[in-house]
Amino acid sequence: MIVIPPLPAQAGKARNLLFPSPEIRKRCHFPLNWRCLHERPAAHSLDPALVCAVVEQESAWNPWAIRYEPLFFAKYVASLYTNNKVSASEAYARGFSWD
Questions:
Q1: How far apart are CA 37 and CA 53, in angstroms?
Q2: What is the pLDDT of residues 45-56, one digit of tens each?
């Protein structure tokens, strides 16, 4: 099992990211297959600890986390809407990051 060593600022707060703490498990909206967090990354030559760290940072283990990305919307989606290629609802939905 891989354990991420703590950074100096995290001393005393270090924990094993491969097995999320009980408070993180309570935040999850449905039971996750925790074994999947070990097997799938390894099958793709990824470090499971790194995958867990990204999930922790990006969504705090919330499977329903979303984030509106205004710069992505402006650069890639707005022109679709202004040229009547997509509806307003679809345009704004495309501007979200589905973490």
A1: 11
A2: 988 888 888 888
